[in-house]
Amino acid sequence: MAYSDKVLDHYNHPRNIGTLDKNNPRVGTGIVGAPECGDVMKLQIQVDENDRIVDAKFKTFGCGSAIASSSLATEWVKGKTLDEALQIKNTAIVQELALPPVKIHCSVLAEDAIRAAIADLKKKKAAQQPG
Amino acid sequence: MQPLIYLDYNATTPVDPRVLEAMLPYFKEKFGNAASRNHRFGWEAEEAVEKARAQVAAVLGASAKEIVWTSGATESNNIAVKGAARMYREKGRHIITQVTEHKAVLDPCKYLEQEGFRVTYLPVNRNGRIDLEQLRAAMTDDTILVSIMYANNEIGTLQPIAEIGKLCKERGVLFHTDATQAFGKVPIDVEAMGIDLLSLSAHKIYGPKGVGALYVRRKNPRVRCEPVLHGGGHERGMRSGTLNTPGIVGLGAAAEIAAAEMDSEGRRIAGLRDRLWNGLTEKLDEIYRNGDPEHCVPGTLNVSFAYVEGESLMMGFENIAVSSGSACTSASLEPSYVLRALGVGEELAHSSIRFSLGRFTTSEEIEQTIKQVTAAVQRLRDMSPLYEMAKEGIDLKTVDWSRH
Ligand SMILES: Cc1ncc(COP(=O)(O)O)c(C=O)c1O
Q1: Chain B: nearest CA to A126, how far in angstroms?
Q2: A104, A123, A129, B306: which sits with the fewest CB atoms below 10 Å from its CB?
Q3: Cα Rg of chain B (Å, integer)
Q4: Is the distance from CB of B302 to CB of B291 less than 8 angstroms?
């Protein structure tokens, strides 16, 4: 199977690899997938006081399409508000990376990772609210 | 661009130039049909086919009459398993095989189950070998056939063929072995090993694709197989169809070369394989060798690189041709059933790479492979959340993963 140029580009030059401090109250961490299934994505976001995403990092265990999907997801969430980031659909990732049908689950996982990171952030905030 | 390195010899091999040279006349001036009995063209082809039969038989310690030409090991396995079962169905309806066989044995067995046969699939140990006591215990008065491969295509593990043959003889059960990955690489003697049926293929031993053979014992006992293809009655009625003369000539030449060079080539390739393993273990932690380091064909090395996924790893050295047990590289989206049968965890099955070395592999290629694979594994571990968690001391088995 040949990979699209965009998948290869993200694989060879992944954007935003790394780790944010998961204990920082402004950082949300999403970990989705399972090692037995062959892919695990960790996606982290950091927001400013207005809940705008100012930084995003990822680490992924998975095939080239999974790496590319999560790399693209970090690029796309940066600069967005949480609500805007929730609008990112896996189908847009499929289109951008020209993923074949067997790799669609990689894009689904990337969308799930964004949602999981935002949910984690919201949970942290709720826990901080006094009273 | 890095130079291309081929380390997928278990998938197929290039045709040896000496083999090609032997084949060429049979595409051109010597194009006759070996079944044409009344002119020189036919005689020439028949003579070539019979020479090849003797060449293949010699490698097996068999007689030339016991060799049946086929289109490859898939067909040989089908004739052996389905053909023998159907021929001896009045004697019994039970067949014994094992879980890491090639699909070309497993699928015919599954098919026979629909025809009313009962099949026992023996498990294998951590190294991929069957247990002889389990085989003995599985045999009943209803057992007519045991089919156990000689060498496994994914991990290279050799089964205790002579011991299996002995057990089968004691019980009067026919013994078939798929020797596709062993033929020409390790010694085979159908008499000493008690083999009744044996499958082999040309394209794994530097011969052409689409040609193979089935050894069918003619004495003690005389074995018969119902044909899968019905037609002109070629090959003692076991396989009809005009013989592929150039292919058969190629298989004969390839077999002769493989046997003549088996010792020296085997030692050289095993040395390269060991160098590859040692080179990788010197530089990388948490890598695991799948298979049996002692009972193994010389050229196969199957390695799981923990925390990195096989397909993405192969992308990291695109100029090196290997195979992976990762689900992402299979049509079924399941990780390798062979590795799973050894008890290799699914995550490590996803992380596996099969390196298979062969006649034209050089030590420079192995050094280059060590360098590139090491770099790719390190790079992917740096971006692996699993590696990060493991280094933090988290036991990945205790994590509650969100399965999808
Ligand atoms: C163990 C084994 N059996 C059977 C086959 C099928 O051989 P062929 O390609 O000649 O049909 C192969 C090759 O893929 C093999 O490795």
Answers
A1: 23
A2: A129
A3: 22
A4: yes
- The series of mean pLDDT values per 10 residues for chain B, 404 residues long, is 92 98 97 95 97 98 98 98 97 98 97 98 98 98 98 97 98 98 98 98 98 97 95 90 97 98 98 98 97 97 96 93 78 82 92 97 98 97 94 86 64
Chain B hits for A109, Cβ within 8 Å = 404
pTM above 0.80, yes or no: yes
Q: Rounded to the nearest 5°, which phi and psi values hold at B214?
A: -125, 125
Q: What is the ipTM of this complex?
A: 0.91
Residues contacting B213, CB < 8 A, separation 6+: B56, B67, B68, B69, B70, B76, B199, B200, B251
Q: Are B291 and B155 in contact (CB under 8 A)?
A: yes
- One-letter amino acid for residue A3 of the chain: Y
Find chain B residues with C-beta within 8 A of A108's C-beta. Answer: 404
Minimal-distance CA residue to ligand 1 atom 11: B74
Mutate which of B201, B205, B214, B248 for ligand 1? The one with the most ligand atoms within 8 Å of its CB, which is B201
Token pair, residue B188, equals 């085979």
Concatenate the DSSP letters of all residues of A3-62 into one string: PPHHHHHHHHS-SSBS---TTSTTEEEEEEEEGGGTEEEEEEEEE-TTSBEEEEEEEEES
